[in-house]
Amino acid sequence: MILFTKLFLAHLIGDFLVQPNKWVLHKEKNKASSKYLYFHVLIHFAATMLLLWDLSYWKIAIVILVSHYLIDLIKLYVNPLFKNKSIPFFIDQVLHILILYCCAYFDNLWMHTLEFFELLDWNLITAAVFVSFPAAIIMSKLLEQMSKQLEMDHKSLPNAGKYIGIIERLFVLAFIILDQWGAIGLLITAKSVFRFNDLKESNSRKLTEYILIGTLISFGIAIITGIVYINL
Questions:
Q1: For residues 173 and 223, is the Cβ–Cβ distance under 8 A?
Q2: Based on the domain organization, do 99 and 140 belong to the same domain?
Q3: 6 and 107 assigned to the same domain
């Protein structure tokens, strides 16, 4: 485990701590001809060797250097094909981490992967997935008739309410699992403070009631899910 942790730390240093935005822009513009692309992969190689501090791992460092170069190079050329630039970014990061995982456990990769999946808390994963998008869809169906009676606020970000609800339910689920029920009250208070000005300016009783009902349903779903998980 410590080997993977060191490799991951070297990746974080190389990709985020010592890569200026100037390098990123230069790579996007010049692609394979960018000198910063080669500086970048050499920094990864150096960070890996420094953190491992063992010359016997030089083969792992070389694999990481070559794979990082190829993955970054491919990303530079496919990046313009995506309207949402976060998609190639996350794909790039997942591929890098998979390479690190394979390097860390190359001598027993298959068995370690099986053990990893066997140790996963599938009840927790199911609970977390449920309070995210499935719960958001359930809420939208429950509140569908009410939402039709409200004037849409075009100034708000698209789907902002949905993502706020998902994040708050994940927080509530985590607080329940950690037995921190008081933190749920603080979360409700914080949300109420942020919503206060919106409700005050709109002066709409329907909107106030809609937000209150939606908040109670959202927290209720997360609380019930947390209680079910604990009892399982």
A1: no
A2: no
A3: yes
- Note the pTM of the prediction, 2 decimals: 0.82
Question: What's the domain range around 191?
Answer: 122-231
Phi, psi of 46 (to 5 degrees): -65, -45
Would you mind telling me the total number of residues written for the chain in this entry? 232
- Whether residue 9 is found in the same domain as residue 115: yes
Q: What is the pLDDT along the chain (232 residues), one digit of tens a residue?
A: 799 999 999 999 999 999 999 999 999 999 999 999 999 999 999 999 999 999 999 999 999 999 999 999 999 999 999 989 899 999 999 999 999 999 999 989 999 899 989 999 999 999 999 999 999 999 999 988 887 776 655 566 778 888 999 999 999 999 999 999 999 988 888 877 776 666 555 556 677 777 888 889 999 999 999 999 999 8
Q: 58 vs 3, 14, 74, CA distance in Å? A: 13, 17, 24
**The domain boundary residue, chosen from 71, 102, 119:** 119
